[in-house]
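Journal club prep — side note

Before the paper discussion, L.F. wants everyone to see what a predicted structure for a comparable chain looks like in token form. Sequence:
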Amino acid sequence: MASSSAGAKRALPFVLCVLSLSVARTGYAQSGTLQQQADALFVEGRELLEKGKFPEACAKLARSAELSPAVGTLTNVGYCNEQIGKFRSAMTAYAEAEALATAVGDQKRAAFAKERFAAVEPRAPKLVLRLTPPEPRDVTLKRNGVAMPKTDLDRPVAVDPQDYGLEASAPGFVTWKSTVVVRGDGALVTVVVPPLEREAAQVVAPARAGAETFTLRRVAAVGLGALSMFALGGGVAVGLAARSRYDDASSHCDGTGCDATGASIQSGAAAQGNVATALIALGILSGGGAVYLWLTGAPARQVVPARAVRLDVSPRGAALGGTF
């Protein structure tokens, strides 16, 4: 199996070359000069690729793809980025090649690009960014100065191995910044953004003492706490009643069993016991929920959050982080 995989890797540059030359270059309408420049860059990139000069080859091929997007060029861009470990860039090139090939009905090259994307995706490092609740309204997240879509939150996003400057900002809050280094084949790095600190000018004295303590979450916590006490008290009471009722059945039972009255009393006691168990379980769950809501419902202005970042790194990757 290993020799077969190695053989496939050795054959890949030849396949890419054949796919690049066997079908006419597909792209948008270009002036003759731009097309000539794109073709010349493609040829130079291929020559550098065959010589193993991957960084130079990637730059030539990427520029050729910019001037004249073509399936063959994009697949070569993807392969070149694979060789220098930029798997996220390789995924982008293969995805574009697949879309372009599909658009012109070239199923063979579309399937090839899709196959390469699937092979590369597990090797790309993943970066997960999470916000500590409660998050401010209109929070803006940036990675290397570029705004991140909210859909990238709380999920692994494939990235190229490099340093990443992260920012989180919102009106009325101090901008949080951090730098993280993502490295490693298939590494998973998680960055947790701490609660944003309010700007000094935005801190307002409460209208009355204690008014700021009861946020919506803490009000809900009080309600759950009351429910917990009611459920636990009811569960204990019903449980004791079930125990007493079960004892009453003893006068109707002996070593051989119970008469009809005893069996009826025991059945009722068992039903009460089940109700008691359910009430106690409800009390425990609601009590836990009350504690969670109370702890996480503290007003932001009562807390001076630590300017810190937590990183979780997989065994195959390494990450360094800091705040400013």
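L.F.'s comment for the group: Confidence is low (pLDDT under 50) at residues 1-11, 21-30, 302-310, 318-324. Keep this in mind when we get to the figures.
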